[in-house]
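Technical appendix A lists one of the benchmark inputs used to test multi-chain prediction within the project. The record comprises two sequence entries:
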Amino acid sequence: MIQGFDPRTGQPTGLELPETDRAGVDAAVAAALEAGRAWRGAPAEERARVLEAVADALTARAEELWPLADRETALGEVRLRGEIGRSAGQFRFFAQVIRDGGYAEAIIDHADTSLTPPKPDVRRMLRPLPGVVGVFAASNFPFAFSVAGGDVASALAAGCPVVVKAHPGHPGTSELTASVIRSALPSADLLGLVQGMESGAWLVQHPSVSAVGFTGSVPGGKAIQALIDERPEPIPFFGELGSVNPVVVLPSARREGLAQGFAASLTLGSGQFCTNPGLVFAPEDVVKEFAEAVSASTGTPMLSSRIRDGYTSGVERLSSLTLLATGQAGEGAWAVEPRLFTTDLDSFAAQLPAVAEECFGPSSIVVTYRDVSDLPGVLARLEGSLTATVHATDPAEAAPLVEVLARTAGRLVWNGWPTGVAVTWAMHHGGPWPSATTTFTSVGATAIARWLAPTAYQDWPAELLPQELQDSNPLGVPQRVDGVLSR
Amino acid sequence: MIQGFDPRTGQPTGLELPETDRAGVDAAVAAALEAGRAWRGAPAEERARVLEAVADALTARAEELWPLADRETALGEVRLRGEIGRSAGQFRFFAQVIRDGGYAEAIIDHADTSLTPPKPDVRRMLRPLPGVVGVFAASNFPFAFSVAGGDVASALAAGCPVVVKAHPGHPGTSELTASVIRSALPSADLLGLVQGMESGAWLVQHPSVSAVGFTGSVPGGKAIQALIDERPEPIPFFGELGSVNPVVVLPSARREGLAQGFAASLTLGSGQFCTNPGLVFAPEDVVKEFAEAVSASTGTPMLSSRIRDGYTSGVERLSSLTLLATGQAGEGAWAVEPRLFTTDLDSFAAQLPAVAEECFGPSSIVVTYRDVSDLPGVLARLEGSLTATVHATDPAEAAPLVEVLARTAGRLVWNGWPTGVAVTWAMHHGGPWPSATTTFTSVGATAIARWLAPTAYQDWPAELLPQELQDSNPLGVPQRVDGVLSR
């Protein structure tokens, strides 16, 4: 059975829920596949209206959703209301994305029979993957990376039915969220929900599942990839895994507010963000203020005893470094103390790669350096991250670092903190392994591309072509026609 | 040692070449990586001019290239001259693609500080993968899918250095082609070439290799995937593997020229095309003419004794079917007879999936049907193909098949034959497993996307942004600005 727990008390909360058995997974996938037939064929405008209805339903039911999620995650009203808003906003955003139509990448090449060999008429666009999308919900965002998350919103927007494997950290929230979303869908079967670890294993091996989205740990991601590798037909695995998110404070960086900004980013949500700043390279003169800021910080309960235990052993792993500061644990059964460690650049480099492994939670390492020119060689040895941040007032000082940082991370942040991930057209939330398993993103407009595949139509009769590929362009989507992009 | 053979005589041709040892692979990758530093940073216009110089060099040296390739492949002057032209054309085409700049998918979202939370300035574009691209050349196109092929052209266009593992079927042609291409590159090291099976295994496991392109068989592709799976850091594997390319002749199809078109497509290049029409669903009335056309056809030598042996056993595997026609083997040590088999739809369906496995070479099966409505159920059970073709004069007759064919194949062809693959903006040469390992294409403008990954820049200073992401858009590339696509 699946049981939610209250991180403030460590005690069970809510009803026990049955684990989904194999037959249950089969039924959810089969129902989703069947409901998907109409959905994938529905015009973008129709899908967009449904996505907006989902956003409305989430907003309308926020009063029910956040208290339940708060009991299961202890993330608090403000954060959870904000997260429901983010989730609703994401559904609205993907409605915009599919109305725009550029996501389909319509390309039309007219025939040219004067050439040898003659060039046929070829038209290509992206269409939804044929089967069901499997999504693994994350622990740390019970709405925005869970049943109401970006994977689900982008897959539905693409035209794919979805089956979500709920995260055991918020099973009740998952069930309620699914029922709220289903109330706005043309068929409730478009969104399946399964509970329990084994259900996830069956899901990724199901012959009708065409792709899998996942947000979680490196070991979790590797386990799912291994299961997918056993399939007779491989399918894409879009995993967003671990990330240390290096921050480089350059000598020219403005010191005002720097330490406070760092501590706030570090301890946000008890440090349970994929984009948590786990590693800071800084001149020695900032160390004292960073230490003071972390000492003054107060932790909040972590999401589960398993995550709390992981943090505890992660922090122990760093005990060879100098402990610079310890914050307050704060209230709650699973509350932990924020920690800040320090070491110098040479010593850090000598302990790579182990020292730079992600420690999920409010812990970070300040690596002090003396000469900016020593940084690129060490930065080049870091594993892939979702983000890399530079603090500086002088861009010229940062110039020698840009290329190495762009090879290390998928998003480069200037004079900010990596923990916020805006849902916009340009956002990229991905990066080199192990931060992501592919070059795709899980946040932002292009997240929809994960659930699409191209079809080319050669000399195909106009009456059988999708609207996006017709010369008259009835939907007004961006088309590249004979090499020229236009709307 | 690596030795080329003349398919007309079965005898060795050209010098023996040493197999590249591990140190040789390391050296080629290291040199490519180093040469790639300048290349990936070079402006698109500069890369475009180099690609055009490569095209010029290939064209200028055609008189040397085709006779050498002919000795190693027996594909003949006309075909090989055409293929050099195709290869040169492909380099020119990718010059156009990178000058256009749309391939970089530049997206700019300006900041909006009035929102809660405030929206940062985020700019995203695709940039070359950080390391070296490994390419496995194919047997059947000694230029267009080999050292001068689309994988190399698109990877260089993307800004990536390349190391090619030569195909053992044309080792001398590979060496000469590499030297011709290098003569036009700013650094010869940008294009490495390694010989021998083991060199390929080292190549895909090399830590500096970021992606692998491959055109070949399903077992070959699986073997490379298994090697990649052993890497500590996974990398994308873009394999274009087997395909049977179903053709559906509907009752309304024009009969004139149909059988001749089929036989020509079937026997082109001795059937050694990934897009060879290996399976035809047709009404019984066309069978006789198809049989006559194949009987009247003459084969040419296959590319190697291994491929010839594979064809022979493939044809034996089909001996449970009715042999409908046998063409002439033609001249040459490794020449084979074209074969046409037949069976009815029920019997075919009963023998799935084995009966529909690709038999590489000039062999096909005509599956006769009586009722069009029986087709979708059987078509749905076929494995993925690169193409699916419909012959009909009445689009309405084909309408019930479009969705199932679009799930089966990456390119749908109307009243044509699948063997030609035009290099255009819209071409898609890919499809569901096993025809391809990903949703990407190996031919056409979007083939470049395989070698690119997104980087997002948040609140990044203008002086450190790539030109493609600057507000002034100095290169005039397509940009999506605040959600609106424009040039």
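Chain B touches chain A through 73 residues (CB under 8 Å). The two ends of chain B are 53 Å apart (CA to CA). Comparable benchmark entries are summarised in Table A2.
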